[in-house]
Every structure is written in C-alpha cells, then in structure tokens.
Amino acid sequence: MTYTTEEIPPPVPCFLLGLQHALLIATSFVFPLILIRASGMGTSEAGFFLSMTIMAVGIGTILQSLKGHYIGSGFLCPSFAALFFIPPATAAYALGGLGLMSAMTAMSGVFQIAISRVISRLRFLFPPEVTGLVIIMAGISAIPFSIQSFLGMENLKAQFISEDLLIAIITLGVIVIASIWGKGSMKLYPAFIGIIAGYIAAFFCGQIPTSSVFTFLTFPLIELPKPIFLSWSFDSSILLPFIIAAFAGVFKTIGNLTSCQKINDADWIRSDMENYSRGTLTEGVTNIICGAIGGLGQSTSSGNIGLSLATGATSRRIGIIAGIILVFLAVFPPVSSFFLIMPLPVIGAALVYSICYMVMTGMEVMMTRMMDTRRFFTIGISLVFGFGASTFSSVVLPIEYSWLATILTSPLTLSTIIAILLTLVFRIGIKQQATIKIMPGDENLADTVFSFIDQNARMWGARRDVATKAGSALLELMESGFSFEIFNTGATVTLSFDEYNFDILVEYQGDPITIPEDVPSHEELMEDPDSFLQLALALVRKHSDSLSVTRSGEMNKVFVHFEH
User: Which of 130, 193, 343, 524 has the fewest CB atoms within 10 Å, measured from its CB?
Assistant: First the structure.
C-alpha cells in the first residue's frame, strides 16, 4: 500500500486522490435525476434536491472517514447516492412531495441506527444469500425505468426517436470499452467518461439545445441552497419500502466494510462486528441528515473501495478531502445544472451500467456459500415472487388490505420479506452432525479426512475456506496422534455445523495431550522428539479459532472450533 489507513499523505497527492474519489462519487448523481424525471419535479426544486444530495454525500463521506467510538468506519469508504432509495422516494414524492420524501428518508436513517446497535445479534437474519438477493433485487427494481430511459421515452406512450437510441448506445458503448480495454485513469472512471461521451453525442444530435449551454454559463459560481421546498410530513403507508431500502443499505455497507477490512489487514480472518456497527450507525446518521436537508438516501460506494485498492491509497484522510470537495460542489450551481440537463438516454445508459454492477455484485455475495436445499429454496422462491411483483399491480385489493399493495407491487420489498421469513423458518433443524471412526494404519489418511470434511461441508453449505482450514487442522491432529501412538485404538471424529459454528470433536482412549502455550523452539525440537507433537498441536491451534482438551473417565476429548 502507498498510503495505509492511518497514514497522512502529503497535501498535493492527498488532494489529487481526494479529487479522484469525488469524481467517481459524482457518477451516482445520475440517481437523483431518475427521481427528478420520474416525478416531474420543477426546475428550482430539482436544483435544490440535487444540491442537497451532493452535500449529503459529502458529509457522509467525511463521517465515514472518521474513527470515533460510535461515528465513523475508520476506512476510506465514501458515501454514494443509493439506487435502491429511488422506488420508495418516488412513491413518497408522489404522495406528499419533497417534505414527505425527506421525512421518510430520515426515518430510514433512524431504523439503520437501531439496527447498528444489535447488528451482531441479528447476524442470522442476513446470511450471504439474503444479502446478495437484496442487492440483486435493488438493481432489478430499476430495470423498467432504465430501459425506458435508454430508449429516450419519458413514459410508455412517448414517441420513440432513433437519435435517442443512438445516444444511449454510444454512452453505454464507451462505458464498456473504457471498463474492458481502458488504460490507467480511463479504466478507473468508465461511467464518467461514458456520460461525457453521451453529452457530446446528444449535443451533435440536437438533444441539448444551444440555449441550455448558454443558460449553464450564466449561473453564479457560488450560491447557498434555500430550503424553501421543505415541509416535513409522515405517512406510515410507505414506511415499509423505506425500511427495506434501509436494510439494503445496511447489507451493502457490511459488504463494503468487509472489503475494507480485507484490503487493510493482510492477516484478516473474520469480520469485525464492531466496525460494522459503527459503519451502519454512521450511514444512519447520514440518512437522517439527508432527510433533514432534503437529499436522496445514501449508502456506501463499492466503486470507490475498488479505486482505493487500484491506487494503493486507503488513507481515510483522502475520504475527508473528497467529502470537503463534494460539500463545496453542492454550493456551486454549475455542477447541479450540468447534471440537470443530462439527456434521458444518457441517464438510461448509466443506469444500465449500474444495474449490471449491482446484479453481479449480488451474485458474487450469494455464491460465497455453497448452495444447499435450504438456500436453493430461499433464493428461488424469493426471486420468483420478486420478478412477478409487477403482476400484482392489476390485482384489486379490499380496502382493509390496501396497505398490502406497497409490499406486493415492489420487487425489492416483496423478495426481501419472503427471503427473511424463509431464513427464519429454515433455521428449524439447521444443526448438522456427521461421525466417522478413523483407525490406525489408514494408508489414505489424507483422503479419508478431506473427503469426510468436504462431502459434509458441501452438503451443509459451509464456506470453502472454513472447510479447508478444518480439513488441514484435523489431518495435522490425526497424523500426530497416530505417529506418537496416542490414538492406538483409533479415534471417533464428530463434525458439527450450525451456520455460524463449524466444530470438530475428536474422542479417543489413552493418554491425554497437553496444548502448548508457545511454539517449541528450534533447540527444543532438536533435543526432545516429543516437541514435534507440541509443534503439531500449535499448528492445529493456528488453523482454528480455538482448541481445547477435556477428559471424562477414560475418554479424552479434543474440541476444535472454527467461526463460520
């Protein structure tokens, strides 16, 4: 790493790296434009809304870069305008304007703060298959608007214009080319480069009038936004979609913070739950700020974490500089006007790119676990009903059940609720066990051990890396036990798994073994052959999360624990 988390880069590199991250974050300003177009927001109100979104992103980026007792993830993990807040925000704006949308966004932040306080206890509610599913459905929910925008159609009855399709193809084509064949900085900013190409294509196709360019040039350089559009209100009928969006934000932030932990710790083994708690609390505070000032809901940015890895600079001071730049841009009207005149096909192409990224990210998260029957049905049933949510829009519900329409017609809300309910139901009988008796003289001991571990791990859906570590630890223990004639009458191995614990219990008759406090020195190994047994046990302890030995009558029990 060029600059690690706690290092302070020199002023010039720090500013340039912060500017890079600010430019990448700016690609998310397409998302509030989607809401502006879908809701028919007036020009002045739209400018205010976009400026407040930019300011909230900047404040959130600064807060996430802090390292306090409660606030701040302590990583370079910038905020990002969140795609999954668009469906509930659009519905809220249609019901009560910017005031209702802002109040409900703030409520989602309150919910995220509440979740952050008990996140370690609720871990079972968001296993990778549920987390990945929510991220996938958040992207899929935006597909109808993205395709409609890609074709340049304000609504389904609008007239199709071939120039709009050409602009969209050029924009998406440049994004893809920059992503695949781009070199250096080009590969870091494919979306931004594609959007610029889309603007140029739209100008030459006559989709950006010359008058818009002159209007853009007449804006004042600096102007403080005026909060004349805010009049907060509350409507419980649309609270659930905002809670689901808040859940999606929590899941995404947990995934991003996991990446940050891995990047910044070469010896990373397991997730830091305290870090998750601080990060999700900070996201909740950011969304309360969004609601207070009138911006779109936020989450954290996966793209910026990838940028920090690519540049080798993960210093959280860079995030603070990026946040300051964004706060300044919020009071710089030309920035807002630049995005407000963005042609609809350019928005559609950028959104298609973002959806592809979200769907593939969700799939990667889901595939971190081996699929078993429980996960098969959890993902399958949730996806089927999520994809079919649009069919419920034509269903007429009785007045007393009208509140169900909010759930049934939203792919993200419906699939998330089903996935969480199935996760709870399928926890019944989730603990699995398997036993094998291993005798001395087994010529294929390694195959016996790894086949036993691997077959059961696959059947139970355990993580591959945990199964591999467990196999290595068990093989080391069995080889040492037989070599030093401790397991003379054989050993009974019981493997158990309950989603979060992967345990091995080895029972045998004979002399008890002693777990060493320290690894034997080179001199001890040369002088005492029995030290090799102590070395083997030290290796077993290194492979595992805990190692203990107990004795009951003539039976000795070696317990090896792995966190899952």
Answer: 524
